[in-house]
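User: Dipeptidylpeptidase IV N-terminal domain-containing protein, Brachypodium distachyon:
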Amino acid sequence: MAGESRGNIAFFATYRPPVPLDIFSSPVPPSSSRDEVHLTDGVSYNYDCRPIPASALKALLRRPKLAADGGATEADVDAGRVSGLVFVSERDGGLETLRIALRFDKDNKTKVFSLADVFGSGDFSGTRLEDSGCFGGGYKVGSRTVDHSLIYVSTKEPVKDRRSPWTVVYKTNLRTGKTERLTPKGAYDLSPAVSPSGKKVAVASFRAEGWQGEIENLKTDIFVMNVEKPPLGRKLLVKDGGWPSWGSENFVFFHRGSDKTLPSGMIETSWAVFRLDVATGETVRVTPEGLDAFTPAAISETKVAVATIRQKSKFSDVRVEAQYRHIEIFDVAAGGAQAQQITQKTRPKGDHYNPFVLDGGARVGYHRVRSDLLKPGDDVPRNFHKLESPLKDVGLFRVSGVFPTISKDGSKLAFVDNEFKAVWVADAQGLRIVYETKGPDSIFSTMWNQNPDKDVLYVCMGPSFNAGKPLEICAIPNVSSGARQRRLLTKGKFNNAFPSSSPDGTRFVFRSTRDHAKSERKHKNLYIMEDQEVGEYGEGGKVTRLTDGEWTDTHCQWSPSGDWIVFSSTRDKPPTAAPLDHGLDPGYFAVFMASDPAVVIRVVGSGDDLSGHVNHPVFSPNGRSIAVTSDLAAVSADPISLPLFLHSVRPYGDIFAVDIDDILRLGDDAEKLKKIKDLRRKFHRITHSRYEYSTPEWTMFATDDPNAQWNVLVKKDAAYTPACPYAYPDGGESWHMTGHLCIPKRCC
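Assistant: Predicted structure for Dipeptidylpeptidase IV N-terminal domain-containing protein:
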């Protein structure tokens, strides 16, 4: 337990399908699902694949590890007996890192190696994300052949600036193993693609003003640079474009989004694939109007494989084939109107992502969820995963349920299923439902009373994510008894949520619209329920107001010492700022601490202008640190390449921690405390992910602590099953867009 002396942070992952993603290919054209070939060893989640050119693969086979354990020779490559793939896998402590795979044609077997296996751990260790592997070099300069290099994205270098991406493109020499940075200092790149000659690499680069909070449609430009001596000759190719793919040295395909603001204020994005003539600068649209197309993979100067969605859908839709994401091939020479369908022929009721080209265009690859592993009517098992943590004294694990909460004595873990209909508890009695609803209301925001003797779990019930609708706080008493009862604690038809009890368990703090119910914006402030037993009912039913203002105070938690309440707030949002951030939520969320109504301290904000999101703060068990979910590191992958959920508001980003010793040292000196407005407080990035990691919980108990009865779920990767079916009889996917169930919007 010494390795987790400050306990464990648990969190929930949005956008991550509950059924593993894996990599497949189909011939062009396919005739049925039997034509589809599985390309990996099936271990963990695997995605974002590209083939390894034969000359680069032969260079890799000279590396000591592959020469000793690869089981292949350069002659095997020349004879077509072995081929290579590079892809992202989550098999290393949950990290999303690159793998080199050798695929043997004779028996369709695959051997998979980490980059640390191939090149050593010097440049390939620690908490990080890696993506978009491709290969450059291998061309002649006079009599010299330039070494092959692996080119890829990594977030391994810390960035101090807030709300800045960490995504940098590197290259690692296949002969020497030396790694160098291709992205210039101060720039941040995504989606590298190497030209057929191996001489140039195109990237989607964040603009000089940086990431501005865009959710689906990243504002990137495409630059090209030399694989050798990259700072020389880096130049702009395309303004407003992403995901480049070379059709030849002279033609680059890319995708571009076009935003439209709807009457509701929401933003709808339409997507198309274009082709740039590098010599003339002419850009032509490849895919027709009336469908969304993205993530191109060029086959030739005129032909390109893309992912399409032919008909937009709402979350309430039971999707038809046209509303799934499919792989199709378009030909500029044919006018682009007619497409060659690929995955519609193999798995019409399934989403397919990020195509790549094999065998010169004879086959097209992609990744999808492994719904073929499910039998009709099966439920999807939900697993808890222990992840690699960058903090030696803090453990990390991912819960496949929403709003995880752990009792103060570490004996019970509770969460809500992804349908927001059932509350699950894991303790010495096992894993089970302790409360569920069959009606239209949702359940969310689970939180244990801090006094474990009370055995009380708080939940919120009502319509989801609508500040104008009533939302009530309830208690589930005697949870361990399994009685499945609830006790209503709030009244008045206000929007009440996020209860957190005092350390002795007698009171709780919560947020409510009760003093702003008639306002257009339905502002929310914090309140104290003075008697957690009766709530607003009975003689002791008193509510005390803690904060007051026309803003949103939310996501509140009482400190272990009882001296402070931490919460997220928009109170410093400039009056000139737009009411909604990108048409979605108010934005400008920062984290504050309050000891009484007169002492409120800003702990950490996101952008320098306080734009952005720092949400769901929770205290460490010793009260000296706070974990949050935030966009402090912007985004780490092109969002349109990921599983999408139409009802999810935005990526929070990752889990971060900040230390607050400077605040605690001031004790109760109110005047000094009021002067603290430290936007530059150092933050620690805990997770590096393309997914949205949200709703953290910090427990004092380590995963190997015998008092933490829930730890068996982490150790054994134990599973629970949600309440609804997931598979169609024909092997398709019944979940929306991506293989996931209901995922929460930003809960304010």
